[in-house]
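The records we work with from here on pair a chain with its fold. A complete example follows; check for yourself that the lines match position by position.
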Amino acid sequence: MQNTTDINQWRSRVLSGQFAVQRGIRLDAEDRARRALIERIMCDLTVDVAAVAAPFGFTAADFTTALLAIERDGLARVDGTRVTLAPAFRPFLRTVAAAFDTYLSPEGGRHARAV
């Protein structure tokens, strides 16, 4: 969710006991699993895809496309269902995490691209 950027509107809504939300999207189980995978790789530089995906009802096989892309790019090691980013490749962390993001458009230009 994103709050309204208009401070007067925000204040008015909050003071009247309403949420100041301007827009948002509803997440499904896959969105939540992907968010958890991205969070773990970005925070820990490693993620066990099978372990993180399981509570959401998914297996590592459901993320085969992402795992193959990560392995192909060579920016992280894929050992079974564990993805590990070497410290030397930390500048490419967003690129590795992006493999799990189905909403990220390759030509988007919304965020800084990796070198």
